[in-house]
Amino acid sequence: MPATTAANRARAFMSIRLLKSLLPGLLLLCSLTACRDQEGDFVPNVLVDLTLNLNNPSYQPVNLVGGYMFLPAEGYRGIFLYRYNINEFKAFDMACTYQPSQSCAVVGLDSATNLLKCNCCGSRFNFEGQLLQGPAGLSLKAYRTLYQPATNTLQVLN
């Protein structure tokens, strides 16, 4: 019996050593996947460097304060552009911050509430990109805007 007990102890010791060596990797894997489930994946960084001549009739919706428009071919999933005041614009990626890699995770205008709403998860954002209702855990990804009143041009960049 003593030989069996020693063999059992040796196996138990080896099992504990194996668990100790695997535990950090398992904890890291669990923590990374838990974050993805709670906050979704992240909106990737794509190059944005646009110069818009606001005298062009296609940009007429943002010539008035409170005006907005969608630039679907820009950014990761398109850009929402909003004229915040006479000299300031807001620009956000239209990718919802909750699982943005899903093809349906794009915000659009909910005309009933005048908010931006994700077509996929239902998260809602105001025109300043701030998260109002989840499951998204982050506000929309913002882009910088530089307005030149003398030439009526707007640069949108990251």
Give a verbal description of the structure.
The structure is a single chain. The chain is α+β, with helices and mostly antiparallel strands. It has one helix spanning 2-39, and strands at 49-53, 68-71, 79-85, 88-93, 107-110, 115-118, 124-125, 131-133, 142-148, 153-157. It has two domains: 1-39; 49-157, Rieske [2Fe-2S] iron-sulphur domain (Rieske Iron-sulfur Protein). The protein has a six-stranded antiparallel beta sheet, with no helix packed on it. The protein has a four-stranded antiparallel beta sheet with strand order 5-6-7-8, with no helix packed on it. A hairpin with a 4-residue loop joins strand 9 (142-148) and strand 10. The chain is elongated. Residues 26-40 have low confidence and may be disordered.
What CATH first level of the largest domain would be assigned? Mainly Beta
Q: Considering DSSP H and I runs of 4 or more, what fraction of the residues is helical? A: 10-25%
Measured between the Cα atoms of the first and last residue, the distance is 72 Å
Q: What is the mean pLDDT?
A: 84
The residue ranges in which pLDDT falls below 50 over 5 or more consecutive positions are 26-40
Largest beta-sheet characterization:
6 strands, antiparallel
Tell me the domain tally: 2
Which class do the helix and strand fractions yield?
alpha+beta
> Any guess at the CATH architecture of the largest domain?
3-layer Sandwich
> If helices are DSSP runs of H or I spanning 4 or more residues, what is the number of helices?
1
Radius of gyration: 25 Å
- Please give the order of strands in the largest beta sheet: 1-10-9-4-3-2
Helices and strands, in order, run as HEEEEEEEEEE
CATH superfamily of the largest domain: Rieske [2Fe-2S] iron-sulphur domain
How would you sum up the global shape? elongated
Strand percentage lies at: 25-35%
Tally of extended strands? 10
What name does CATH use for the topology of the largest domain?
Rieske Iron-sulfur Protein
